[in-house]
Structure formats: C-alpha cells, structure tokens
UniProtKB/TrEMBL annotation:
UniProt: substrate binding residues: R56, G57, A58, R90, Q188, N238, K239
Function of the protein: Catalyzes the interconversion of methylthioribose-1-phosphate (MTR-1-P) into methylthioribulose-1-phosphate (MTRu-1-P).
Keyword terms, alphabetized: Amino-acid biosynthesis, Initiation factor, Isomerase, Methionine biosynthesis, Protein biosynthesis
Family that this chain belongs to: Belongs to the EIF-2B alpha/beta/delta subunits family. MtnA subfamily.
NCBIfam families per UniProt: eIF-2B_rel, PRK05720.1, salvage_mtnA
Taxonomic source organism: Methanocaldococcus villosus KIN24-T80
Protein name (Swiss-Prot/TrEMBL): Putative methylthioribose-1-phosphate isomerase
Keyword Isomerase in record: yes
Enzyme class at the top of the EC tree: isomerase
Length: 332
C-alpha cells in the first residue's frame, strides 16, 4: 500500500480582515494582476463593495455584510436603514440574509453586533476548513477535477468551499490537476487560478465551452463547485453555467459535487421565491471599454442558474456528505 506523505501547509490568503474598527477586503476587481485592499469605514462602503463585486462569493458576502452592520453600530448610524441597504445589495446568495438576520437578532436582544459579526467570521473559517477535511476523502490520487467560478478562499473568510476540498487533497499529498473554467462574463476563473498558483496547485484554464469536450475525451474525473443557495428539495443555485456542467456530467457519468456550509441552505423558500440576479449588460457586451458586439445589441446577463437535485451526486458540508434527498439529516 502506498503511504502518502502529508504536506503541512497554511492558507495565506486572508480576504476579510477586521482591524481598528475598519473592514479590510481584498479588492477582487484588481485580481489576478494586483493584490490590493479596499478599506470600508462605514456600512455604505460595505454595500458598495458587495454590489460592485469588490468582495464575492456567498459566505464572504455574508461575513462582509455582518461587519457592515457592525460599522453602522460603531458609527451610530440608523441600524434599520443600514440593514435594509446591505440586504438589497444582491438578491440570490442566501448567506447575506443569514448573516444580517443573525446580527439584527443580536442587536434586538441588546447584544453587540460587532461580537456577533466576529462569531460569524470565525465560524466561517472553521466550517470551510471542515468542508475541506470532509470532502478531500472523495478525491483520489491522480484525479483531474473541474471547477467553475471561484469557490475558494476569496469567496469565503478563508480556505473556500470547493477549493477547500481541493486544497486539503493537495496538502495530503494527492497528485491532482484542477481544470479551471474561465466563467464568463466576470472571469471568476481568474481568481481561482490566482489562488491555485499562489499555493502551487497544478491547474489548467479552459474556456467555458471546452468543458464538455474534455468530458467526452475522458479527461475529467470529478466536478466540484460551490453554491450560493441550496433549497430543501436539493435545488442548487450557483454561478451561471453550473447547470450546463451538471447536465454534461450526468451524460458522461462523472461525479458532480457541490461544496457548501449549512449557512448556504435555505429551508424556507420555494423555487419560485428565489430571485436570479441579472447584472449590467455591459459585462457581456464589453471587454473593459471595448464594445465586442454590434452597437445596440441586446443580451442576457443572468448571474446564476439552478441545478436540480437529480443531477447532483452529493453535497459536501461541514457535517458530512449527503445526497440531495437527505438534506434534512444535516439539521437534526
């Protein structure tokens, strides 16, 4: 039996920092070419950061929003107004509402919003680490793993969700290669590539429309993505393009996993209740300031899609791996 040497490693990227009553975020608009920080002094700065994608990823958005409400408390702003402003920044990722509601509950009970925000932050770090420890057992030595969007440290407080699984497999000595979807139109795949390069994890970038061909050629062993919301019926909302990958994976008999913390589960909403965010058409029609299509072209720019439960092999959480029809086991 081959004994694998465990690699000791430490996550170096810290996307969310609370220091001297300021929220400091890695400015993801500048990545992958520049590692710069965006400093939030008040809740309006945080709302801007969430809306304009300075900070991205469901768990990271939730933590940032919690600190945004804490800044409102510190600055003696109207808490209800701050809550409303932060809540309306982005409509699909459930972690935003989860974190804000927790902080508001603490506030109404006479507790410190800041202390609750810090708890949410620490919990997210612990949970994402656990997701990696649980999920890496699904990865075999030599696996080629395809991922979509960025479900890494940059999308959380640390470690990531899908990338936490990949990180822990790599740290435990498994020889893996990651296939990184570019993820049009915001190219979040560049953020994933930035993280993988930062830690020396082998990867290859592909255009989104290459994924099916690689599966057809037998060059993808597993697919792992993150999630922005998971319903009680197992429906997963994630970055646009996830559904297409799941259909292709089903056809080619490739395991399709979703990695997400319990805070991403929405046990109350039905599919018709979930708002799929539509973003500025310029993200599709322009490359920076260059118009790529004929003047006056219209387009769709849905930020997310929904993947039905029957296309999902398993959901990796901090409490274990479950099938989509077993979700309620996690909440007993």
């Amino acid at each position: 039996m081959k004994i694998k040497k465990k690699i000791k490693s430490e996550i170096l990227l810290k996307p969310i920092i609370w220091e001297d009553n300021k929220l400091i975020l890695i400015d993801q608009r500048k990545l992958p070419h520049k590692l710069e920080y965006y400093v939030c002094h008040n809740y309006k700065d945080v709302a801007f950061a969430i809306k304009e994608m300075v900070v991205r990823g469901a768990p990271a958005i939730g933590v940032a929003a919690a600190y945004g409400l804490a800044l409102a408390e510190i600055n003696e702003d109207d808490i209800e107004e701050a809550y409303k402003t932060l809540k309306n920044t982005r409509p699909t990722a459930i972690n935003l509402f989860y974190a804000l509601d927790r902080c508001m509950k603490a506030y109404k009970e006479g507790k410190s919003i800041l202390e609750e925000a810090k708890r949410i932050h620490e919990e997210d770090i612990h949970v994402c680490k656990k997701i990696g420890e649980v999920g890496e057992k699904l990865i075999d030595d030599g696996d080629v793993i395809l991922t979509h969007c960025n479900a890494g440290a940059l999308a959380t407080s640390m470690y990531g969700t899908a990338l936490s699984v990949i990180r822990h497999a790599f740290w435990n000595g498994k020889k893996i290669i990651v296939i990184v979807d570019e993820t049009r139109p915001r190219l979040q795949g560049a953020l994933t590539a930035f993280e993988l390069k930062y830690e020396g994890i082998p990867y290859k970038v592909i255009t989104d429309n290459t994924a099916g061909f690689l599966m057809q050629k037998g060059e993808v062993d597993k697919i792992i993505v993150g999630a922005d919301r998971i319903l009680k019926n197992g429906t997963v909302y994630n970055k646009i393009g996830t559904y297409s990958l799941a259909v292709l994976a089903k056809y080619h008999d490739i395991p399709f996993y979703v990695a997400a913390p319990l805070s991403t589960f929405d046990l109350k909403s039905k599919e018709e209740d979930v708002i799929i965010e539509e973003r500025d058409k310029k993200e599709v029609l322009y490359l920076k300031d260059i118009l790529l299509f004929p003047e006056g072209s219209d387009c769709y720019n849905f930020a997310f899609d929904k993947t039905p439960a029957e296309l999902i092999t398993g959901i990796i959480t901090e409490k274990g791996v479950v099938k989509p029809n077993e979700i309620m086991k996690l909440f007993k």
